[in-house]
Amino acid sequence: MHENDQYKAATVEAEAAGRGGLSQAELDELVASSDTGGRSAMGAVGVFLALVALSWSLFQLWIASPIPFALGWGVFNDTETRSIHLAFAVFLGVTAFPAAHTKWQMGLGIAVPVMLAYLFMVGAKDGTPTWWIPLVAIAVVATVVLGSPKDRIPVWEWLLAIIGAASALYIFVYYREISTRVGAPTMQDMVVFVIGIMILLEATRRSLGPALTIVASLFLVYNVLGPMMPDIIAHKGNSLSEIVNHQWITTEGVFGIALGVSTSFVFLFVLFGALLDKAGAGNYFIQVAFSLMGHMKGGPAKAAVVSSAMTGLISGSSIANVVTTGTFTIPLMKKVGFSSEKAGAVEVASSVNGQIMPPVMGAAAFLMVEYVGIPYFDVVKHAFLPAVISYIALVYIVHLEALKAGMKGLERPYTPKPIILRLLVSAFIVACISALSLAVYYGMGWLRPAFPNSAGYIIFAALTAVYIGLLYIGSREEPLVLDDPNEPVTRLPLPGPTVRSGLHFILPIVVLVWALMVDRLSPGLSAFWATTYMVFILLTQRPLMAMFRGESRFATDVVAGVKDLIDGLIVGARNMIGIGIATATAGIIVGVVSQTGVGSALADVVEVLSGGNILAILFLTAILSLILGMGLPTTANYIVVSALLAPVIVTLGQQNGLIVPLIAVHLFVFYFGIMADVTPPVGLASFAAAAVSGGDPIKTGVVAFFYSLRTAALPFLFIFNTELLLIDVTIAQGVFVFIIATFAMLLFAAATQGWFLAKNRFYETIALLLIAFTLFRPGFWMDMVFPPFEEEAPAAIVQAAAETPAGQDLRIRVSGVGDLGDPIEFVSLLPIGGGATGEERLEAAGLAMRTEGDRMFIDDVAYGSPAQAAGLDWDQEILRVLKPVPTPSKYWMFIPALLLLALVVMLQRGRNQRGTSRTVTA
């Protein structure tokens, strides 16, 4: 399908969406203002900006490839690449995003530089010249006051962009000089920092809105004015030279981990998605979902959920996902009976969840690799079950909505075969795919040792042969064309031809998943090889497809393929502007946290507010994520909240006797950061969906929030039941957990939607919530009846160590002092290894104790030992030993839960039968 056809079809859909006034251009502007830049510079300026974006993509591909290392030229270290990455982002952030003209935005654009100038002058050490700082602020303020037209770039904005990019490049240009004087910034360093930080915050205001600008500015206020803060969060305050060194010269602040992840991983995944979309995969995913699910009750809505899940591979932006799939799905949902608000809400709920769907998740997932210190494979493994369960539950919610309204699906274009035959065919297809996967897996295992130097070329040749074969199969089918939602009757496309027409789009995704999950390559290298293969497909699919169809115009098709590639590279870079700036600005916040130690102080604040209750802490974290998410993009929200509260939750959980894995806490924060795109009154994805549907944006957001309650419930559940994250489970246990958790989530959805087999009575809703909770966490009730641990005196630690199986953890409750000298009490999990006696096992764990009367203290902890890793330290007192005791299986609690479910089913079926009888009698 040609690009012009897509635009025409999407315009028709937009006009059918309710208001009839939203053209495709207006929808494109909606996405651009949020994601790619709303300035529509034409002519030579537009070409120049496109060339800058193209150069950024080519630079990222260069540093990700093995070519620089093979040539021994163009090799950059991490800090240098971060500097160049930020220079591109700041330049395009200023030039591609015009500043908003509202009084509030103008006021903020003036206030931030003025406030920063005051702070830096106050923070300068005695004898440090500061006369130049107000001049920098005045210059930035002047660019704000002079205005920011949408259709051109004035001289002052060119200067702002060039100077901002130069400030970011300072680390690259003067890398060697700076590396010899870390900790002792010069006046030149200070000037560059002041200019750079002011322009970075201005670029943030333009591209991401006021929220992140305000939060970062407030953290800088806290950094300088620490002594003036309330006692509980006060600190000594940092001088200008200390801030310059921490934020700009080292990798603790702006050029920290977050920007590094954006440079190394995120850009390539965003670029991969942009190229895949440019090739036509987005339309293919939508059509496949409709052909397979459109005939069901509420079929277009179910297809919207599935297509959004697949489109989540392409778009890391909730808003772009809503507009991409929503222009087609929302009108069709309205056609089968959904209101404008509900149609928009279904699209929002499914599009937002695209960021949690492995194997390609949102940008924040790649940050987890660095922050948690685990491979990306493990992040995907832990995130897999909650994401799949969430999507299955959303399909069920759509089904319930269709039942409530008595909706029907769209007309099938064929007569389906008997269900048994369809199941057999499906089983055969699954078996063939499994056999093929095993053959490829073991074939690759044989190929690499047999042909160590040429294995890569052989694999590429085999992939290319499969690609050409799939293209040939696709060429036998008609090109996919989007239906016109204005047609009186919409017939679904045939599933077989639809699926076959674009099977080659799956190949680059297979390459990516294989590299990530099987070969266990780094995310950056995996994305590079997938993107490289995507470049090959873009250059060849048009001429090959035309040749197979006998329509070949070779030169024209090749030129069109090159144009698609260049457009995809430009779009990929523009999609990264906001992420690059967000990670740099969030680095300011992370830098302040690490420099001031506010994290430890915040732990005290949270403990006071929550009373030390872990559930209250989680609620506070969720609320903070939602509030910050009203203005911060998902990535920045995750960075801020995880830096502030993730360690606090782990520490306070430990003090409550709940050992919370760090990955569970980070996924908790990630989920609620995504929820912010839905939550009214500022859920941007809801506004985008309402713009397409013609519905009320606030009502759309409220409905979408209720649809997304399943996504909000999951983080609380996997904090307390880490089996949902596939932590310490076998394959059989994982399958069992998936089945039970999915069933429980469907019951939770039925409770929140007020409909199961019939409309719920209030007590049935309570019963369904209780059943769902029991299935999710049966141990909650069993632990009340049969406590899993028996508390014994400290003297029992030797016997408990002897009885603990090797490789298991011994739980001990200890008290001591925290990092700031505050008294703390927590439960430690001490790994127990081999040894003939309890004394030998404790010694092997690195633990030595002494007794003082009835009390037992830790006398020594060996450096680098399991005891040290468990948080134990010298002079802590051992209060109790938590000895495991035999208990009945927690799954016995399923019996009363299922009996209660049977009662609800019986009550609702009885009401349905009585209602049917009355209808027949009438």
Number of strands: 6
Helix content: 55-70%
Net shape: globular
What count of helical segments does DSSP give?
40
Q: Give a short account of the largest sheet.
A: 6 strands, antiparallel
Distance between the termini: 54 Å
Spatial extent as radius of gyration: 29 Å
Quaternary structure of the protein: single chain
- Work out the strand percent: under 5%
Structure description:
- With 922 residues, the protein is mostly helical.
- The protein has 40 helices and six strands.
- Strands 1, 2, 3, 4, 5 and 6 form a six-stranded antiparallel sheet that branches.
- A hairpin with a 5-residue loop joins strand 2 (809-817) and strand 3 (823-831).
- Helix 10 (187-208) crosses helix 26 (577-596), helix 15 packs parallel to helix 17 and helix 28 crosses helix 30.
- The two termini are 54 Å apart.
- 49% of the residues are buried.
- The model is unreliable at 1-21 (pLDDT under 50).
Summarize the structure.
It contains 40 helices and six strands. Strands 1, 2, 3, 4, 5 and 6 form a six-stranded antiparallel beta sheet that branches. The longest helix is centred in the middle third of the chain and has 32 residues, at 419-450.
